[in-house]
Design a protein that fits this description.
- The protein has 387 residues and is of the alpha+beta class.
- The chain folds into two domains: 115 residues, Rieske Iron-sulfur Protein (3-layer Sandwich), CATH 2.102.10.10; 226 residues, Naphthalene 1,2-dioxygenase Alpha Subunit, Chain A, domain 1 (Alpha-Beta Complex), CATH 3.90.380.
- Helix content is 22%, strand content 25%.
- The radius of gyration is 23 Å and the shape is globular.
- It starts with 10 loop residues before the first helix and ends in an 8-residue tail after the last helix.
- The relative contact order is 0.15.
- The model has no long low-confidence stretch (mean pLDDT 91).
Length: 387
């Protein structure tokens, strides 16, 4: 077998110029996760999302239809709205009070007669549309109003993402979280899809699944992954699950895809989790997480917790302890796989500054990293730059 080597130069992880090109050529030209369908439950509700260089908002109109617009007032370009909220009938720019209806039409210009004596053709100054689509209970936006549908974008990989129906599950709000990793977004993605590290970095924290039997591959730029439960976990699986089943029997295992460019899903027998990667700078990445569980009674959760307590009481532990630990706050002594991942990503980013850095060959279990790097390069080709 031919040795595999990493495809990207160090500059791809450290350069501001490379980072800005990625924002223009990747994140401004692909679908971006915006939220869950329940985030916009009724007319007037809206939310905003940064999609590469574009700030876009989704709003539900009075006809209950979802629409997406570039968050740019047609007068001077001020952003109309921030974050998440609800309006009754219209959207008003805070700068000069130009007002738009929920369908994006300009309906009011203050002091129009005195300030614009030549008149304002409101029919030509509606908000610029973007694309919005729903897939597996998730909202996505695309800056291009004529973008291909999500069915086209995710179509080939969809059958390999597990039997979960997220729209039928309920969000567990205590797990909604956001944090920053001091590393390039691609290092975070590469860690997520690195099969080789599962049995090593997470030797004591993720051994409820059999990493040696993992099945993974690619459909277009999207990575799919599934692995079965370990023999110990599977021996009494229905008792060992920490929460009630989120998928019907007999389905078992962990589905952990990474959808291009940075939408991670971690789904198992009893949960469905989102891991959204948002680049902030060449060496800084924001992660947003959300979790959905079975839509069953509180009593069902309590019973499952009691049943599984014995297994989880003795499960896992830190990678290092005692003489191997560097201190009380060492992430490798945390017994938490997320802390282990963050540590590994940040340590790798630090090494990129060293003139002695030399990346070795990729292991078989690191082949997804090489493939993701190729996908990045494909999008970064100058010929595809619309500017």
């Amino acid at each position: 077998m031919t040795k595999m080597y990493h495809q990207l130069p160090v500059d791809a992880y450290t350069s501001q110029d490379w980072f800005e090109r990625e924002q223009r050529l990747i994140f401004s030209r692909t679908w971006s996760f915006a939220g869950l369908v329940e985030d916009i439950p009724e007319p007037g509700h809206f939310l905003t999302v940064q999609a590469g260089l574009n700030n876009i908002f989704i709003v539900m109109g009075r006809d209950h239809r979802l629409r997406a617009f570039h968050n740019i007032c047609r007068h001077r370009g001020t952003q109309l709205i921030r974050a998440v909220g609800k309006t009754q009938k219209a959207l008003t720019c805070p700068y000069h009070d130009w007002t738009y209806d929920l369908e994006g039409n300009l309906i009011s210009v203050p002091d129009e007669a005195s300030e614009f004596p030549q008149g304002v053709d409101k029919s030509c100054l509606g908000l610029k549309p973007a694309s919005v689509d729903v897939w597996r209970g998730m909202l996505f936006v695309h800056p291009d109003p004529a973008a291909p549908t999500l069915a086209e974008w995710f179509g080939e990989v969809d059958p390999l993402l597990g039997p979960h129906r997220p729209e039928e599950l309920i969000e567990y709000p205590d797990t909604r979280n956001a944090y920053e990793i001091k590393a390039n977004w691609k290092i975070v993605v590469e860690n997520y899809i690195d099969v080789y590290h599962l049995s090593h970095l997470h030797s004591n924290t993720l051994y409820m699944y059999d990493h040696a039997k993992a099945e993974y591959g690619w459909k277009g730029p999207h990575y799919h992954f599934w692995e079965p439960p370990s023999a110990e976990y599977a021996e009494n699986l229905e008792t060992n699950l920490p929460t009630p089943r989120a998928i019907p029997e007999p389905h078992v295992g962990a589905w952990v895809p990474m959808l291009f460019p940075g939408i991670g899903i971690g789904a198992s027998e009893d949960s469905w989790n989102l891991f959204i990667v948002k680049p902030l700078a060449p060496d800084l990445t924001r992660i947003e997480t959300r979790t959905k569980l079975a839509n069953v009674s509180d009593w069902a959760y309590q019973k499952q917790q009691w049943k599984s307590a014995g297994f989880w009481k003795n499960f896992g532990g830190p990678k290092y302890q005692g003489a191997d630990a560097s201190g009380a706050d060492d992430p490798m002594t945390s017994g938490d796989f997320t802390s282990e991942d963050i540590f590994a990503c940040e340590q790798q980013q630090k090494s990129l500054k060293s003139p002695f850095l030399e990346i070795g060959p990729a292991a078989v279990g690191e082949s997804p990293i090489v493939q993701h790097q190729r996908a990045v390069l494909d999008f970064m080709q100058p010929a595809k730059d619309p500017t």
